[in-house]
Write a structure and sequence with these properties.
Number of domains of chain B: 2
CATH superfamily of the largest domain in chain B: P-loop containing nucleotide triphosphate hydrolases
Strand order of the largest sheet of chain A: 1-2
Radius of gyration of chain A: 19 Å
Distance between the termini of chain A: 21 Å
Low-confidence stretches of chain B: none
Order of helices and strands of chain B: EEEHEEHEHHHEHEHEEHH
Helix content of chain B: 25-40%
Mean pLDDT of chain B: 91
Mean pLDDT of chain A: 90
Structural class of chain B: alpha/beta
Strand content of chain B: 25-35%
Number of strands of chain A: 2
Number of strands of chain B: 10
Number of helices of chain B: 9
CATH architecture of the largest domain in chain B: 3-Layer(aba) Sandwich
Oligomer: heterodimer
Largest interface: A-B, 33 and 43 residues
Structural class of chain A: mainly alpha
Chain lengths: ~325, ~250
């Protein structure tokens, strides 16, 4: 009855299905072509796909261009590192804790910054993230500028170890699929429609009776918590919680992933994460100036596919 | 006639200018009350304070006896006070159906539901269809709001406000920019709304005002200089001098 509404973002199984199969078979395929070490960058792409998709809940669906998403990503990483340092190794406890703390941080930062709009919102989220950066840099107990080395990767139990690249890859894949699926449901729920209405016309939303601020804050907390999970995974992958995770470069990189992939398509940011990190991986091997080429790609996307790479892939319909 | 909306001693200053200067106004249950006045009289400023987009400096606003002066706009909407905007305010990128379904969703249960697909909630879309019918947009349900004709957009604007099931509807210049045909259609629509709710109508089209309104208040320089039936207002000496002029009075 309401099919085809731009408010509903259907799963395109024709594309998503084969992609999932490919991702599930990737370790086998890479072993077959004798390039198993590419599992590490593949895992990294999945981690950033989670973070970029969570940011897009704000940017693409809520119209909130946050330039401080690294704050929550970094918080997740540090919570994992600090928890490990104090003896909390279990992934089952440390990762949810990372999400909760990142969510609480998002609540506090959102409470203040969501009172502003547009450019002011961009600046205030950036400012908060930089404050968090300097807070962690100044904490000598937790590594200061050098970052906090993880004594060991989070423990999974069941005889599984994250030291195995394959295990880590599959754990990340499961969490990426889960969290992206949850965000997908959120986007299509009542809450998601409300969020998209706010992006479209905030005053009108107030005028038909929506408590706009509360919805924006809830979206900010959800996005922050999911970014916290990505941060926990990133800390495990790099074996450390680095201040670089909180830096504004990181926030900028997440935004580039979102814009590159396409803000109005649900899977665009995940595709953007893959494209950006693959560029970094392969062009970065050839030249230290890989960011120049990233810039060139970004300019090309803005000129030729202003709605992102995802719209190129499926000719103007949504992924 | 019991009073639905009561405004007392309302003041709003912008620097040295009192845009609202001690306004007292009452709108009765089931009444269609028109607010007229020359440009710059402070009509939209007053509407903004009633609807909650602008906080008054002094005075009070009561709806059904409850003080709503300090409530946010969405809290007022929940109590039955809705508005339309002078400059059409729609979800321009959404279809007519989605515009209305979203407005219906606002008052039909919590929107802090994160998992069930809203698209499957038939009730939302059925009500949206009924509202579209009400404003004669049933053939435009799948059309994106931004490509509707101006008159159609104005009617969608009214329907969005109606979706909140208001007890009192504030209409801010609903006829603005409409041609004669669309104007007549809008006047008929407004007339039909009287069955559902009370109305406070701000309008420049004097023909429409004198035809629709049960009572009229005249706002000049932030003050209400007269309130009465269309007949009383037409013959009010001060109103004629300040505002109406001979041409309009003859209408």
């Amino acid at each position: 009855m309401a099919a085809g509404t731009p408010l509903h973002h259907a799963v395109r199984w024709a594309l998503v299905g084969p992609a999932l199969v490919l991702l599930a078979l990737l370790p086998v395929l890479l072993t077959a072509i004798d390039q198993p070490f590419y599992l590490v960058p593949a895992t990294r792409i999945l981690i950033y796909a989670i973070a970029a998709t969570s940011l897009n809940l704000l940017v693409g669906f809520g119209g909130m261009v946050s330039f401080g998403h690294a704050a929550f990503f970094g918080t997740g990483a540090y919570v994992t590192g600090i928890a490990a340092m104090h003896g909390l190794q279990s992934a089952w406890l440390a990762w949810p804790l990372a999400m909760v703390v990142a969510g609480v941080a998002a609540f506090a930062i959102g409470l203040v910054s969501l009172r502003t709009r547009g450019v002011y919102f961009i600046m205030i989220t950036l400012a908060f993230a930089q404050m968090m950066y300097y807070v962690f840099v100044s904490m000598k107990t937790y590594g200061g500028e050098d970052g906090l080395a993880l004594e060991s990767r989070s423990a999974l139990g069941f005889g599984l170890s994250l030291k195995s690249d394959t295990t880590f890859y599959y754990v990340t894949l499961v969490l990426a699929v889960l969290s992206i699926a949850v965000l997908w449901r959120v986007v299509n729920s009542r809450f998601g429609r409300t969020l998209q209405g706010i992006r479209e016309n905030e005053i009108r939303m107030e005028a038909v009776g929506f408590p706009v601020f509360r919805h924006k804050l809830a979206a900010f907390v959800i996005a922050g918590a999911v970014a916290g999970l990505a941060g926990a995974l990133a800390a495990n992958q790099t074996d450390m919680a680095s201040p670089a995770f909180l830096n504004w470069h990181q926030s900028g990189m997440l935004l580039i992933m979102v814009i590159l992939g396409g803000v109005h398509s649900f899977l665009g940011p995940a595709i953007g994460a893959a494209v950006l990190l693959l560029l970094e991986e392969f062009v970065g091997d050839m030249t230290t100036h890989w960011q120049f080429y990233v810039g060139a790609v970004l300019v090309a996307v803005v000129l030729f596919a202003p709605n992102g790479i995802a719209t190129l892939a499926v000719r103007r319909s949504r992924v | 006639m019991s009073d639905l909306l009561v405004i007392g001693g309302l003041v709003k200053r912008f620097g040295g200018l009192a845009a609202t200067d001690g306004v007292d106004l009452a709108v009765g249950e089931g009444e269609l009350h028109a607010l007229i006045g020359p440009n710059g009289a402070g009509k939209t400023t007053l509407i903004s304070q009633i609807s909650g987009t602008l906080a008054p400096d002094a005075g009070h606003i009561r709806l059904q006896g409850q003080d709503i002066t300090r409530l946010t706009m969405h809290e007022r909407v929940a109590r039955g006070l809705a508005r339309s905007f002078q400059v059409t305010s729609l979800f321009r990128g959404f279809s007519v159906r989605d515009n209305l379904a979203l407005a219906v969703q606002a008052r039909s249960g919590s929107s802090f539901r994160f998992f069930a697909p809203a698209r499957n909630e038939r009730a939302l879309f059925e009500e949206a269809d009924r509202l579209a019918q009400r404003v004669d947009l049933q053939d435009r349900l799948d059309t994106q709001a931004s490509v509707l004709a101006h008159g159609e957009q104005r009617r969608l604007e009214i329907a969005l406000a109606l979706a909140t099931r208001p007890r009192l509807l504030l209409l801010d210049e609903p006829l603005a920019g409409l041609g004669p045909e669309e104007s007549a259609r809008m006047v008929a629509l407004i007339e039909s709304l009287r069955a559902d709710c009370s109305l406070l109508l701000v309008e420049h089209d004097m023909d429409a005002v004198f035809r629709l309104a049960g009572r009229i208040s005249v706002l000049v320089a932030g003050k209400i200089i007269a309130t009465g039936t269309p007949e009383q207002i037409r013959n009010h000496a001060e109103v004629r001098r300040a505002y109406l002029g001979d041409e309009a009075v003859g209408a």
